[in-house]
Structure formats: C-alpha cells, structure tokens
Amino acid sequence: MIAKPTRSTRFLRFMKHFFISCFILICLEIAFGYALLATRWRLYISNEQMARFALEIDQIDPMPENFKRVYTAIFPRHVNATMTEQLFLNYVYRFAFRHATFDSKPHCYCDMVFDVLKKENKELRNIRWDGRLEEIEFGFGLENFSSPQKCFDYAMRKRLEELKKLLHPELYKYLVNADVSKMTDDQLIELIILLKSRSEFNKEQRPDLFYKFFEEHKESLRKASE
Asked: What is the DSSP code string of 116-133?
C-alpha cells in the first residue's frame, strides 16, 4: 500500500513548484522587457535612417592606440562593452546590489553618442522620441549598424574637440596643441581625467581630487603593464 504524503511533504512540494514558477515568470518578464527596450528604437527610426547615423559614426578617425591602451588600463570594461552587457552587468547589477561604482562596470558608448550626434544631425534632432530612455534605445539600434569600438571613437573625438575649446590655452598648452598619438602616459592620464569632468577634476581648482585620481589611474596603468 502506497503511503499517503504527509502535510509537510505536500507543503514542501507546493513551495518548490511555486518558486520554480515564480523564477520562470521573472525570467520571461526580463526577456520581454529586454526585447522591448532593445527594439523600441524601430518605432521612431527606420533601418535606412539608422544606417545613415551609423555611417556618420564610422567615418570618424579612430582614437590613437596609445590613448586606447591607457584608457583601457584605467577602465578595462568600457571600449568593447556591448549595450546588453551595460544593461545587465552595470545598470541591473548596481540596482540589485546597491553598488554605486559606475566606471568599474561595462559601459557602452553607443548610448552616449545620442546626445552628441543630436546636436550635429538635424535629421536625428527632428525625431520626436517618447519616454525617458531614448539614449539607451538609440544605443541598442546603433549597435546593430556600427560597433561599440566605433561609438567609443566617435564619443571621445567629440569630447576632445569640446575639451580643447574649454581649456585655458596657456595653462594647458601641452594638451590643447599636442598630438594625442605623441602624448606621454602621464599626459594621457591627465587628458582622460579632464575628459571625465573638466570642472570637477582639474588640478587648478581641485588639486587634491585631481592628484588622487591621477595616482589611482597611474597605478592601474602600472598593473596593466606588468
């Protein structure tokens, strides 16, 4: 005669099925949300338009190899990161684990291209985008027609152009007039710090903060070179 399951056994079985069902539903919700976010750009931009935007990105000159070497030593998860990696390993991770550090996580520059390109491209500027995630949605679309590396090159080139206009021509002569490909590692570290935030990290107004980051980045470069 088969023994009838006890109440505790039935309860444990119910809880097991309940948690499995919840896990499956959560996975389905995440998959649906990701698919919606990654394809929502199609509501506003055609493939032909996105291909034109990507062509504009791809035509920019790449950043010099010495710049990428130093930048990657400091921020190893930026240059080649995809939008998917950024979404799950940066945004979701930091939200789930209340992690405040941003730069140590993957960050794709395809979303940062949006604000820069919008200033210079009338066609993109005239597109009316609903919602508050247009940069991320555009980044997912752009990534289909370009690459994270090209987005990085474009964003950095445009940031560098703006930075050189803002820096004092005498105080920063060695950066404003210099060829990036011929800069020393120390100059590149300073340039990267200024590209992050000229007003917050410059060594005239905030020398304590500037040199703190400078030494940290120099140590990262040293470790990467070992």
From this structure: HHHHH-HHHHT----SS-
pLDDT tens, position by position, 150-189: 999 999 999 998 888 888 777 788 888 888 999 999 999 9
d(CA 118, CA 107): 20
Phi, psi (deg, nearest 5) at residue 177: -100, 0
Instruction: Give per-residue pLDDT as tens, 107-117.
Output: 899 999 999 99
Considering only CA atoms, which of 161, 205, 196 is closest in space to residue 213? 196
List CB contacts of 16: < 8 A, sequence separation 6 or more: none
Q: Which tokens in the block code for residue 190?
A: 């300073």
Architecture of domain 25-225: Orthogonal Bundle (1.10)
Q: Are 88 and 108 in contact (CB under 8 A)?
A: no
Q: Distance (Å, rounded) from C-alpha 217 to C-alpha 69?
A: 12
- List the chain domain ranges: 25-225
d(CA 171, CA 168): 5
